[in-house]
TrEMBL record:
Recorded superkingdom: Bacteria
Residue ranges of domain HTH cro/C1-type in the record: 13-62
Molecular-function GO term, any one: DNA binding
PANTHER family: DNA-BINDING PROTEIN (PTHR37301:SF1), DNA-BINDING PROTEIN-RELATED (PTHR37301)
Cited SUPFAM superfamilies: lambda repressor-like DNA-binding domains
Protein name (Swiss-Prot/TrEMBL): Putative transcriptional regulator
């Protein structure tokens, strides 16, 4: 998929665990793992906004587009 999720990068920068982020955002650690590992088919804007609020970042810090050439396809 050409959309890459960089939540793990922001977690490392903020020295925060997945469980702590999930608690603060109000989603289950399992659902956060699905999003973090790029297996999610969609993300609600409310969830994206909550992630940005907790991590003090912009949506572009969490999501980026990699074209087919960059992904090797």
């Amino acid at each position: 998929m050409p959309i890459v999720v960089d939540i793990d990068v922001m977690l490392a920068r903020r020295k925060m665990s997945v469980g702590d982020l999930a608690d603060r955002v109000g989603i289950t650690p399992a659902n956060l793992a699905v999003l973090k590992n790029g297996r999610a088919k969609a993300v609600r804007f409310a969830t994206l906004a909550a992630l940005c609020e907790v991590l003090k970042c912009q949506p572009g810090d969490l999501l980026r587009w990699e074209g087919e050439d960059a992904a090797g396809g």
